[in-house]
């Protein structure tokens, strides 16, 4: 069986990830001992019914299939840019579902997000209060650094870099909304595939192996001497609406996929996957959507909302036309398609 492609974009779950060839020598990682990737059913790689539906119905283009496979083979992050509503975040869920990578780890970026937030969270106050409840002093002699793991949880990035035998899927959503320093801060962690937890490093003399909670569940995994190194580099998707430029050093370490507004046949396929075969009025709305998209950014889910209401509301055609216009407002006045 040919090795390429591992991800096919057919939405049929399979174990093709096991056919990945060895990584390039400069992207080989040796973390361990190996952990089992959380097992889930075919439709449960997303965190909500909405995400499960989008993962199951995602319509991949030939170009997106090619670049997803490039990222998987090269063990590099995939930077997905494009206007809102083009399926940037849904792509991560679709790949995770098809390749059975377990639940998607999601890190939603804001202007206040830091690298530390993505790696782990440590609550020293809860540790102090817990210690006061059982001891006169929070750090008794000989136990000064014990119990830290009970007040520490790995973040989505920190969990993705655990030494799983199969890669995890990590979505870093809207990286362009971050502080200017975050892309640069990510460089070393994503390049080296490892990080340290200083609180556990200091405690290693007393507790060399700590059981730490991971992102999204109460499961605990062992962390030896406060150091984490991946074994299978995670499938990392970073999304951007194109609101800012990124440093060349950051871009050089990513595979970049630029999504555009879908064209006629692709858009009809998206409607078909979500709502069934489009009827005559739905095709009229598709044509109107494509025409309006030339005057500003529109999101595909605006069209889906309009088509769904057309079939479910029972309104007269003239009322439907007016409602469709209200449901498809421009997200920006000046299209930026040339930038993509």
- Biggest sheet strand order reads 2-5-10-1-11
Class computed from helices, strands and strand pairing: alpha/beta
Q: Could you spell the SSE succession in H and E letters? A: HHEHEHEHEHEHEHEEEEHEHHHH
Distance between the termini: 35 Å
Spans of at least 5 consecutive residues whose pLDDT stays below 50 are 41-46, 136-145, 334-340
Taking the sheet with the most strands, its summary is:
5 strands, parallel
What's the average pLDDT?
Answer: 86
Total helical elements: 13
By CATH, the superfamily of the largest domain comes out as P-loop containing nucleotide triphosphate hydrolases
CATH class of the largest domain: Alpha Beta
What fraction of residues sit in β-strands? 5-15%
CATH topology name of the largest domain, in short, is: Rossmann fold
Notes on the structure:
- With 340 residues, the chain is of the alpha/beta class.
- It folds into two domains: 16-258, P-loop containing nucleotide triphosphate hydrolases (Rossmann fold); 264-339, no CATH class.
- The protein is 37% helix and 13% strand.
- It has helices at residues 49-57, 62-74, 88-99, 115-119, 124-134, 156-160, 182-192, 198-203, 248-252, 264-275, 280-293, 300-312, 317-327; strands spanning 78-81, 105-108, 120-122, 152-154, 169-173, 194-196, 209-213, 220-224, 227-229, 235-240, 255-258.
- The strands form four sheets. It has a five-stranded parallel beta sheet. Strands 3-4 form a two-stranded antiparallel sheet. It has a two-stranded antiparallel ribbon with strand order 6-9.
- Strand 7 and strand 8 form a beta hairpin.
- The protein is elongated and about 75 Å long.
- Mean pLDDT is 86; it is low at 41-46, 136-145 and 334-340.
